[in-house]
Amino acid sequence: MIKRREFLKLSPVRPAPNQGYWLHVSRPAMACRFEVTLPLWDRSSVLIARQALDEVDRLEQQLSIFRESSEVSFINRNAASNKVRVEPSLFALLLLCQELWRETEGAFDITSGPLSRCWGFLKRQGRIPEPDELEAAKSLVGGDHVLLDSKSGAIHFTRPGVEINLGSIGKGYALDCIAALMRNRVRTALLSAGSSSIYAIGSGERASRGWVVGVRHPGHNDRRLAVLTLRDLALSTSGSEEQFFEHNGHRYGHIIDPRSGLPAQRVAGVTVIAQSAAVADALATAFYVGGPELAQAYCLTHRDVMVIMLESGAERPIIFGNNDNCDVEIIE
């Protein structure tokens, strides 16, 4: 079984003589390991990496629905009865989430928590919900239940029971924040969140074409699907191998289509390359749900986004879009 955070495997550029060693600075956060990888010759950036990782702790405290004291938990408790003023950077993230909800036709939706709960995935105890339970959860889901007032910087829910969960964008957002803190202070670095989300600053080793990342085939543990070379780009992947359960011979994955309320079935794995790790994170979930039609349509209007998608039962992936800072080699 391949977990989502194992779907991507970091593979450094082939080293020149006297090279080939890396500096790794890491810490646990958001139920995974955040890591900064630096070339061995850049020991002076270790302190910068540690300082940047401090930001992840702050963000987890702000964004986690599993911490009663977090700002998101406060919003979920109060936004149905009152407008809640939101810290500016979090409000900007919520605006991005609403934009992505519209652009993906609802396939990315931060209000889908009630569906994950009724399917048992929030507690990692998957089960088949009763029809009336599923309908009740679906009535609480949809970006139109979240009202954002840009003038006051406040959020309001249209009805009780609506909630937001930033789990499908939070790790990427954290990488964007780390990258912003490090970008003008280091020559190059590779940032990762559990290896399911990655942000490449610069091009890796001196004279390198970029940071090389191997994408594992979701259906074969011992195979790579592709090898990517990234320069100043972010990457994220989605798959249902991290959480699933079987019932009557049918497999149900943890990624729910917010529109139907049912686990997505058509795609085995999706990798998205974009300028922003938050956007790549969100789109990986959206395209896993929406399939090749949504990915193709989105890439036609967003020229900097690239998608590598393996449909269920397929052996060769489909590629949509292009980015000049990413080289792709499909492994046959």
Shape: globular
How large is the share of residues in beta strands?
Answer: 25-35%
Cα gyration radius (Å): 20 Å
| CATH uppermost class of the largest domain | Alpha Beta
Number of helices: 7
Beginning-to-end CA distance, first to last residue: 21 Å
Derived from helix and strand composition plus strand pairing, the structural class reads alpha+beta
Q: Can you walk me through this structure?
A:
- Helix content is 28%, strand content 27%.
- The protein has seven helices and 17 strands.
- Helix 1 (46-63) packs antiparallel against helix 6 (170-182) and helix 6 crosses helix 7 (277-301).
How would you summarize this macromolecular structure in one to three sentences?
With 332 residues, this protein is α+β, with helices and mostly antiparallel strands. 28% of the residues lie in helices and 27% in strands.
